[in-house]
Amino acid sequence: MHLDVDTEGWPAGEWEDLAGRAATAAANIAPELAHPSLIASLLFTSDAEVRTLNREWRERDKPTNVLSFPMLERVDLVHLDPDENAQGNPPVMLGDIAIAHETCAREAGEKDISLEHHTAHLIVHGLLHLAGYDHAISDAEAEAMEEMEVKVLALMGIADPYTALQSD
């Protein structure tokens, strides 16, 4: 998968590198994300921009930490021809992710974790949503998605964010 990353809405940092590492780790746990034709955009932006997106696309007039906008149905994703990119076909747009800086930074502070670790979690969460995983469907789906997130983050050397929440 290729990521188109825009970090202009965030303070200086290694955000593009973090996004690449998160995508690589996610593809190890959710192999459908490893398809070479896939492209996803990742916007590091402000709470104001995420609030606008949330209001326009989700009818929720508030900021949130991460928004995902899938552009490919899961059934189409898992049935992509593995040789499609080798045949010179154009990229396949998986979807868009937007991450709100102020909300992400506040949550990281509340959880007493680094902004980088929390951001990595949100990137992974967003990528899994683009791949068709959805924690809102059922408790079982939520648990499955959390387990995948924990495995991806472990590959990145990041502690289980859910265990940290439960120990408080």
From TrEMBL:
It comes from Aurantiacibacter atlanticus. It comes from the Bacteria. The keyword Amino-acid biosynthesis does not apply. One of its GO terms (molecular function) is metalloendopeptidase activity. The keyword ATP-binding does not apply. Zn(2+) binds at residues 125, 129, 135. PANTHER family: ENDORIBONUCLEASE YBEY, CHLOROPLASTIC. Binds 1 zinc ion. SUPFAM superfamilies: Metalloproteases ('zincins'), catalytic domain. This is Endoribonuclease YbeY. It is found in: Cytoplasm. Its cofactor is Zn(2+). Its EC number is 3.1.-.-. It is an enzyme of class 3 (hydrolase). Single strand-specific metallo-endoribonuclease involved in late-stage 70S ribosome quality control and in maturation of the 3' terminus of the 16S rRNA. GO terms for biological process: rRNA processing. Keywords: Cytoplasm, Endonuclease, Hydrolase, Metal-binding, Nuclease, Ribosome biogenesis, rRNA processing, Zinc. Belongs to the endoribonuclease YbeY family. PROSITE patterns: UPF0054. One of its GO terms (cellular component) is cytoplasm. The gene is ybeY.
